[in-house]
Amino acid sequence: xxxxxxxxxxxxxxxxxxxxxxxxxxxxxxxxxxxxxxxxxxxxxxxxxxxxxxxxxxxxxxxxxxxxxxxxxxxxxxxxxxxxxxxxxxxxxxxxxxxxxxxxxxxxxxxxxxxxxxxxxxxxxxxxxxxxxxxxxxxxxxxxxxxxxxxxxxxxxxxxxxxxxxxxxxxxxxx
Amino acid sequence: xxxxxxxxxxxxxxxxxxxxxxxxxxxxxxxxxxxxxxxxxxxxxxxxxxxxxxxxxxxxxxxxxxxxxxxxxxxxxxxxxxxxxxxxxxxxxxxxxxxxxxxxxxxxxxxxxxxxxxxxxxxxxxxxxxxxxxxxxxxxxxxxxxxxxxxxxxxxxxxxxxxxxxxxxxxxxxx
Lengths: 175, 175
Fold this sequence. Notes:
The structure is a homodimer of 175-residue chains. Chain A contains six helices and two strands. Chain A has 175 residues and is mainly alpha-helical. In chain A, α3 (42-55) runs parallel beside α4, α3 (42-55) runs parallel beside α5 (90-109) and α4 runs antiparallel to α6 (132-157). The model of chain A has no long low-confidence stretch (mean pLDDT 93). Chains A, B: Pfam families: DinB_2 (PF12867).
């Protein structure tokens, strides 16, 4: 097991600023490109991260800590953000995400002896039993997944423009 | 063609700070993990980016702009950094990269009418004829490739720790 609460918090704490640095001062073309039908652009990825801060990690964490082991943890709709009005400029979205993340990390700090509850169990609607440490690990990997998605989508915008160098750039054929 | 000089410079300008935000304040475990034998950790990725700033983009750009169309552009050894002493702390490496990148972007600004030379041709040692716009596009995608690599390597550190959520996290099986 590589997970540690300290290590997880380090990454979770870095993500909002890293996204800010990646997406600031970019022209609209970089932000609105995607990988084709039913794929997300950077606005939509940040919307999804915002939605996750509101309705995924902390509600599930609290259900595992305080809920009935036999009651499912709250479901999370990974596509909910696509049905919401998301016309805010990217700076506003990034700021919203940063505020929510900071609030959620402060929330973690208020939990007495969180470290001693890492093996607490919840019932995931699809997977069945999951541990609190698995939820926290997933939060970290989820951040990294969506950073990877953003840079991959941006890279693919230049898929044809790189000419023969495409042969050296595996990111252009990843999903 | 999606490439524009302005758009390319936006991304190239963001990369050092984005890497700084991603990799600062992380414990050593995050920085020294890799994907197995003959794969790179984050120190090595930054070393490679430093090497590229020194010996890849600008020397090749200058060869295309000023060289003989029939003389190959300079080769670049993608593994050169692995044979150098790279024990600097990550903050030093990130600072070195940032300084080199700023210097190189300033260098681009001094080239008169760069925009009008985007179709200039050079001879790549493997690919044959390449255009200046393809080199600049590749510089951008190369940045994004290595950001994706860093977050993928970090994500894989928690591959087992996420438990059943692995099924939702494609990054864990990407290369």
